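[step 3/7] fold_predict: job queued, chain A
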Amino acid sequence: MTGSGARGTGSEAAGRGPGIEAAGRGSGIEAAGRGPGIEAAAREPGSGRTAPGESRSEPAVRGAHDGALLVVGDVVTDVIARHRGPLASGTDTAAAIRTVPGGAGANVACWAARWGAADVRLLGRVGADTAAWHEQELTASGVRPLLVVDSQAPTGTVICLVDKGAAAERTFLTDSGASLRLGPDDWSDALLDGVARLHLSGYLLFSEPSRALVAEAVGSARARGVPVSLDPASAGFLTELGVDRFLGLVRGVDVLLPSRDEACLLTGLPDAEDAAAKLSMHVPLVVAKQGADGALVALSGTVSARVPAVPATPRDTTGAGDAFTGAFLAALLKGAGPEDAAREGCRAGALAVEQVGGRPHRPV
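[step 4/7] structure written:
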């Protein structure tokens, strides 16, 4: 679950950080087993539907900008430890440590809102231990939280080890907690009312309940003509899941946003362009994130655009991919084509690596 929250302060907001009792019931949080957290708003049947005579793949390529973005994915608490050089085994390593809200799905939603998407909604599952804090942070970031509170599992926690060297590379220790207990009972077709795009965090594919939710959500979206995007999320977890199984699970997805490593892993090809092109024969539109090398846009087996990165001095690469995805989706919602949307993604990614944490900082 990549990404941290780092909202300018990085600390507990107004004394309501981790450890508080879940509150605010009726402003987005709902008890486990009772479905989506709040009543789906903006109930406008058909706002994400395919227009008469329009092909199934067109919305994914051209963008659909007359409705909301619904993100379904992980909400976690990130503990970021920034150190310099190798860890000293068996003793102390000096580090700057912060606790912030994160999660790949939540980060994507926050970046989409930051990049101008007017209506961003997030369906996720959290523990009662930090539910109100996460809801508060999402709301303050312009995201409408649809949080299901799990009475049996705590909110997921990720320890992010970030080397303060030139590359600012990171390593994750992940306890998924409640986030991967999100399941089909938490889904409702009404969640798509007023929605123009559905985005799924790839972490949902790494547990059985969440895989069942993905299947149901994709089926509901296809029935309504709502384009679906997915970010594979983790090369390590992909290896455990298996390539063939992953490709089967993403059948019906319109847009895939892998990293370079994920694209190469999913195709067995060492070259990123070849990998992106091959993947686009499985998913109509593939946008492969290349870090300092920008992004590749591939359609129907061919790389159609190579988008350069925006120069940046990295401090923390934790949420760069999430930032790219959020800005990319926001641009599509506003009517941009894939190449222009990828340029916006590169801009957001550059901004993300120059700050600590996986979400855009809020003005103080």
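[step 5/7] annotate
Residues 208-224 form the longest helix (17 residues).
DSSP finds ten helices and 14 strands in the chain.
exit 0
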